[in-house]
């Protein structure tokens, strides 16, 4: 029995034989003869037609299981399959370079993937993952007549793949996928969003899977703990089987929201643990996990999932669905933070440094139509509801926040004049991710109800290190004293203004740093539901006084090395 660990993408537990996908041996490049070109082009047309039919069938089959935002992901796939430029480039590789159609698909995908990777934006990279999914589906269909993979077991199975893609998640045996294990695939990819929405236990980040597993091997996947057990013994298998039954029963039962203040430190100090999500399906996870609301609801998915911008009515329907599911608990809608990606003329490609360009509030103010559409949708969806907030991304100063507040007031008045219901008590909060905003937090809190601190982005800008750039990742990940000093300073500013701060991001759920956050005064966190278990373990371990002493030691440390020593000591205590 062997146990390996990865990253939890979607919680749950699964037991079953594995089916490997995407681990075929690399094929050598083969140039085709002139008389083979036409047959290869015919193979491409057949694969495109088959792929479109599959995606349409999947969308139809999943219509009752997925929300509108998630279903639009498949519209994006259909758009790629019908994209004349994409198809023409593949044909060009076959006609001019005499590549087989399978190699042509790979060559074109590699080119576009490289372009997307040059743009340092996780949201735009989701488009690269969509293109990868389409290319993978095409290649799977081109391989259909060859013996290139392991046939899926006849019953329920655990999908094991090189990359987490929708092409492997959704095939003819989709209903039998009990769990997913992948070597690669991020938390924010569309495949990950769909896995969470569908409740499929999923883990990524486990390397060398073909060395660990063969097709048909029985495994236990405890995705909540990020653990894969290979060749489990009889006792572990029996325990896991019972656990699967209990987990499936809990899925069918409607979870009641946890009472506010349900989470606390060892000495009973209440801490608000809110969820971070980006689709109605993920929002349901927040409820299922008993979290106390949604701290940050990312609204980008509907704008990026389909080929066209969503209408105001479409946004209203989605936002209302999420609001109603939260039943009065806190819910913060982050306004669109990928403005240039949806602007006409591909403005982002004209910016030399998009991460420092027309992002967030800047892009929204540059395109008032999108801004006002979103504000109107939130106002309409929030009519009669409580606890709804508008979160303003990439704020750098007071004027950004004031202009959004003015636009919100104007749209509320316009809706009332038109005889339409509009929320009257929306809260507003800046998202602090720019050092200038952090330095001016006190003034911003005067103009807002609370603030959200995007700790990962703030650290990236403070240390001038993009977290998506592998070349400087060590700079972003370093525990620099300046980061802790700024976080402590903001906590004091908020305390003086008697306003709440919500800490948001992957680092907000870091179990090593969490005592520092508590010790400096943070009492509200917006984290991925799958991180809840780790955070509550830390809270049960420490009292607030102990956290304050830990924070004081960290703030006294003059160098990164000294901070690291304090944190290492915490892990070994």
Features:
single chain; 573 residues; alpha/beta; Glucose Oxidase, domain 1; TIM Barrel; 2 domains; 8-stranded mixed beta sheet; 8-stranded parallel barrel; 25 helices; globular
Account of the 3D structure:
With 573 residues, the chain is an alpha/beta fold. The protein contains 25 helices and 16 strands. Strands 1-8-7-3-4-5-6-2 form an 8-stranded mixed β-sheet. A hairpin with a 4-residue loop joins strand 7 and strand 8. Helix 7 (190-198) packs across helix 10 (280-288). The longest helix is centred in the N-terminal third of the chain and has 25 residues, at 37-61. The relative contact order is 0.10. Mean pLDDT is 84; it is low at 145-150, 254-261 and 344-349.
What's the average pLDDT? 84
- Low-confidence parts lasting 5 or more residues at pLDDT below 50? 145-150, 254-261, 344-349
CATH first level of the largest domain? Alpha Beta
Largest sheet: 8 strands, mixed
Radius of gyration: 25 Å
Which range does the strand content fall in? 5-15%
């Amino acid at each position: 029995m062997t146990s390996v660990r990865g990253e939890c993408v979607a919680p749950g537990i699964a037991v079953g034989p594995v089916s490997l996908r995407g681990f075929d041996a690399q094929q050598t490049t083969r140039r085709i003869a002139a008389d083979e070109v036409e047959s290869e082009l015919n193979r491409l047309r057949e694969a495109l037609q088959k792929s479109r039919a599959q995606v349409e069938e999947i969308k139809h089959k999943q219509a009752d299981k997925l929300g509108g935002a998630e279903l639009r992901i498949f519209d994006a796939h259909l758009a790629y399959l019908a994209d004349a430029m994409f198809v023409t480039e593949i044909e060009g590789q076959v006609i001019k370079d005499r590549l087989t159609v399978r190699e042509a698909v790979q060559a074109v995908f590699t080119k576009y993937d490289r372009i997307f990777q040059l743009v340092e934006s996780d949201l735009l990279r989701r488009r690269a993952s969509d293109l990868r999914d389409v290319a993978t589906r095409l290649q799977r269909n081109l391989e259909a007549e060859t013996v290139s993979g392991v046939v899926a077991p006849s019953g329920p199975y655990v999908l094991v793949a090189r990359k987490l893609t929708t092409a492997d998640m959704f095939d003819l045996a989709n209903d039998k996928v009990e769990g997913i294990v992948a070597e690669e695939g991020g938390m924010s990819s569309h495949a990950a969003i769909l896995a969470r929405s569908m409740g499929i236990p999923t883990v990524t980040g486990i390397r060398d899977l073909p060395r660990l597993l063969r097709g048909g091997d029985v495994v236990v996947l405890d995705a909540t703990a990020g653990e894969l057990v290979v060749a489990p013994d009889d006792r572990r298998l029996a325990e896991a089987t019972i656990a699967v039954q209990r987990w499936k029963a809990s899925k069918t039962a409607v979870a009641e929201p946890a009472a506010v203040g349900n989470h606390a430190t060892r000495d009973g100090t209440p801490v608000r643990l809110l969820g971070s999500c980006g689709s109605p399906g993920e929002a349901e996870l927040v409820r299922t996990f008993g979290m106390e609301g949604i701290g940050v609801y990312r609204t980008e998915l509907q704008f990026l999932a389909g080929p066209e911008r969503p209408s105001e009515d479409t946004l209203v329907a989605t936002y209302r669905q999420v609001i109603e599911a939260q039943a009065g608990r806190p819910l913060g809608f982050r306004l669109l933070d990928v403005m240039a990606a949806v602007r006409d003329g591909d403005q982002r490609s004209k910016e030399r440094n998009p991460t420092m360009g027309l992002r967030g509030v800047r892009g929204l103010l540059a395109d008032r139509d999108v801004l006002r559409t979103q504000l109107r949708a939130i106002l309409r969806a929030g009519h009669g509801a409580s606890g709804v907030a508008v979160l303003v991304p990439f704020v750098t100063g007071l004027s950004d926040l004031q202009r959004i507040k003015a636009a919100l007031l104007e749209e509320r008045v316009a809706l009332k004049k038109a005889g339409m219901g509009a929320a009257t008590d929306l809260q507003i909060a800046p998202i602090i991710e720019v050092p200038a905003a952090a330095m001016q937090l006190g003034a911003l809190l005067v103009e807002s109800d609370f603030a959200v601190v995007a700790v990962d982005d703030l650290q990236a800008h403070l240390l001038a290190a993009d977290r998506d750039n592998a070349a400087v990742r060590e700079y972003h990940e370093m525990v620099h004293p300046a980061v802790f000093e700024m976080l402590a300073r903001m906590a004091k500013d908020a305390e003086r203004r008697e306003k709440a701060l919500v800490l948001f991001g992957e680092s907000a759920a870091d179990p090593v740093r969490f005592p520092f956050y508590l010790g400096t005064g943070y009492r509200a966190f917006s984290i991925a539901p799958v991180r809840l278990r780790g955070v509550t373990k830390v809270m049960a371990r420490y009292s607030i006084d102990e956290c304050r002493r830990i924070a004081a030691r960290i703030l006294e440390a003059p160098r990164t090395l000294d901070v690291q020593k304090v944190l290492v000591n915490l892990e070994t205590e």
